[in-house]
């Protein structure tokens, strides 16, 4: 495991990680030991941005804290234990997406089995990207959600708000209408993004998520 701590302006540090699993481990360790002066943790696919108030937490002190947290970051089994004890956000889904049958066939499953695996998986928000409130969800372990789903060869020009999709090893839901290349398996009415709410995003990095099937 190798992590580089790089300056990112006057009030943030960027930590480069080996892979997404390393990002999740570091994010959990930093979140569990957050000192006074931490403003925000922003994970991505290979990095964690650590934003601070330098008047309360100078960058030199923040770098020392990150190094200490790195030495105690959790492994996958520890995170699975934490996922089991955390209360998940339940996202109710109507599994009627236009790609549902095709995705099930590509994975060697029948539709009911794909829905069962999607609702049984212990999901967590790895990071936010693409659009405000769009959460990239990963399974709790390789056996929890072992599937890799191909993106569409040509992205759709219009994906409706609330569409639930799969791409690579991720699942996610579109918070607003937009173009997109994920394979659509259902739709939800969950308020994924509300600019007038506090916080505006329903799902934040580290949040545990469970999908629940609802009738047509």
UniProtKB/TrEMBL annotation:
The keyword Metal-binding does not apply. InterPro entries: CT_C_D, Cyclophilin-like_dom_sf, PxpB. Keywords: ATP-binding, Hydrolase, Nucleotide-binding, Transferase. The keyword Metal-binding does not apply. Gene3D superfamilies: 3.30.1360.40, Cyclophilin-like (2.40.100.10). Residues 3-203 form the Carboxyltransferase domain. This is Carboxyltransferase domain-containing protein. One of its GO terms (molecular function) is ATP binding. Pfam families: CT_C_D. SUPFAM superfamilies: Cyclophilin-like, PH0987 N-terminal domain-like. SMART domains: AHS1.
